Every structure is written in structure tokens, then in C-alpha cells.
Amino acid sequence: MSEKAIVRPYGDTTGDGMVQVSFTLPVSHDKRAEGAAVQLANRMGIDPAMVVHAKPMGDEFTFFVVYGRVNHLVDLNAVQVVERDFALLSAREVNTVVKQRLRRKLSVVGACIGTDAHTVGIDAILNVKGIAGEKGLEYYRELKVVNLGAQVSVPELVEAARVEKADAVLVSQVVTQRDAHLHNTREMSAAFREAMPAGRRPLLIVGGPRFDETMTDELGVDRIFGRGTTPGEVASYLVHALITQRKATA
Ligand code: B12
């Protein structure tokens, strides 16, 4: 293991271990509340801890920002993440591969499921206007995109995927209260497994800012995309999973 693999947080001077955290306690703002915030920070391993900001949130809650030192080290060699394992293609390259090797349009159905009405994320991926200077999947000539929008039920989604002969289903989940995103995703993947035999099922992709990208097997989906995803990454993955990789393993 190289020396550089171990790092500590940096606040004022390199490796001083200083971090800043924020949280809300269900107590009115007074001296005792600030002491409670320091106690919590100490228990989180931040010692010494300093309250640098405290703001009442109504009568019975206080929001805190605490700054202090941790003694923990990070071993970069032990970090586990999902690395991109497919080539990033341009829109032109995606269109060419789909046209030459699939020889029909690649059908994509997208939605926000459950009660989730946060459509900005799925729109950023699907709509022409896209995000971060990249056009969305509707811009790709060889992709046929149906965006069902907000609050779509799982049976509606399965039916739309069947009607559209979807090669891929793209689902967005932004609200994570009481793990709604996990429950909804599991319900969705189970419904597709029940409705369609293996081999005839579309690729199942979920995305949203608070997903753990390593949870694909647990959630029964093929891929999870997190915050900052761009349409180009998704289009490249579709080509990889549905065409390049499939032909290579066939
Ligand atoms: C805009 C917004 C709204 C708008 C939504 C408008 C719309 N048409 O989408 C409105 C005002 C309607 C709204 C309502 C609510 N909201 Co709101 N909202 C936000 C806000 C400010 C921004 C979200 C956003 O647009 N982000 C920008 C997009 C581009 O980012 P993104 O979603 O992460 O998407 C990217 C990636 O995650 C990924 N991605 C996302 N989906 C997918 C899908 C696929 C297939 C792929 C490949 C990739 C992908 O790619 C995208 C592009 O990079 C956030 C706070 C914040 N700053 O994030 C709160 C937030 C999401 N909302 C929140 C809440 C609580 C609510 C309400 C419950 C509030 C209330 N009490 O009524 C309601 C719920 C309504 C409902 N039924 O869903 C909470 C969620 C907390 C939680 N942990 O669950 C947040 C985090 C605010 C907060 N800090 O409390 N909200």
C-alpha cells in the first residue's frame, strides 16, 4: 500500500482532520441546545467540536453547523465504488451503433413512479434540452423516447413498456423519505419480473440523487445512476448493455 493511500480531512492546514457537519435537533435554541449539539458531535468522533452557526427553526427546532477535528483516517485502497465499465460515446456514435447493429429504433420508456413528482431529473436525461450542455435522449435520432412524467403507477409503467416494446425502462426516484425510493424500485422490478419472462424483459434502470449505486442486485435492476448523471452516459450505457455487450456474450 502506498503512503498516499491514507488521507485525513483538511480544514486550515493539510491533514489537520477538521470537518464541518450540519444537523437539526428538536430543541428550542438556547445555551443548552448548543451544548447538546457539541455532545452529539463528540459522540460522532468530532473532538474538539465548535458550534459555528445555530439558527432557530420555529419554536421547537434548531439548525446547527459544527466545526471540529476527527481522528479518523481514510484508506483510499479500501474505497468501493461502481466505476464506469463502458465506453463514453458521442450522440453520433450511439446513433451509428443502434442503426447498424440493432437495425431499428431503440425504445426507451421513462417515468417518476409512486407519489414522486420530481421530474426535473428524468427530464434532464430524456428531454431534448438535456443538462450540463448535453442534449437529452430525445435528441438521439435512433432512440424512440416516451416520457410518462410524474406519479406513474407500476402497473401503468409495465403496460406502457409492453405497448412501446421498450428495450429499456428508466425510472427516477428523488424522494427518499422512509426509503420510498427503495420500496418503489423493488416493487417495480418485481412487477416486471412477474409480467415478462427473462429475455423479454426490458433493461431496468433507476436514477436519483440518493441512490447507492452498488445496490443493483438488492433492488433487482440492471443499473443505478446517481447525482450528476448526464444523458450521454445513459445513452452510452444503453448501447453497451443492449447491443455491444449482448452481442459479445451471445
Ligand atoms: C425542484 C424541487 C421540487 C419541485 C419539483 C418540480 C419538478 N417538476 O420536478 C416541487 C416544488 C414540486 C417539489 C415538491 C416536493 N419536494 Co422537492 N425538491 C426540489 C429540489 C429543490 C430540486 C430537485 C431537482 O430538481 N434537482 C435537479 C435535478 C436535475 O437533479 P436530480 O433529480 O438529482 O437528477 C439528476 C440525477 O440524480 C440523475 N437522475 C435522476 N433521476 C434519474 C433517472 C434516471 C433513469 C437516470 C439515469 C438518472 C437520473 O440524473 C439527473 C441529472 O443529473 C430538491 C432539493 C435539491 N436542492 O435537490 C427538493 C427535494 C428533492 N424535495 C423534497 C421534498 C421533501 C418535497 C416535498 C415532499 C415537499 C412537501 N412537503 O410538499 C414535495 C413532494 C412532491 C412529490 N409528490 O414528489 C426533499 C426530499 C427529501 C427526501 N430525502 O426525500 C428535497 C431534497 C428538499 C429537502 N432538502 O428537503 N420539490
From TrEMBL:
Q: Which segments constitute the B12-binding domain?
A: 105-249
What InterPro entries would the database entry show? Answer: Cobalamin-bd, Cobalamin-bd_sf, KamE_N, KamE_N_sf
Concerning Pfam families, the annotation shows: B12-binding, OAM_dimer
Give the range the annotation lists for the signal sequence. none
* Name the record gives this protein: OAM dimerization domain-containing protein
Question: Which species expresses this protein natively?
Answer: Micromonospora vulcania
Query: Which lineage do the record's taxonomy fields give for this organism?
Result: Bacteria, Bacillati, Actinomycetota, Actinomycetes, Micromonosporales
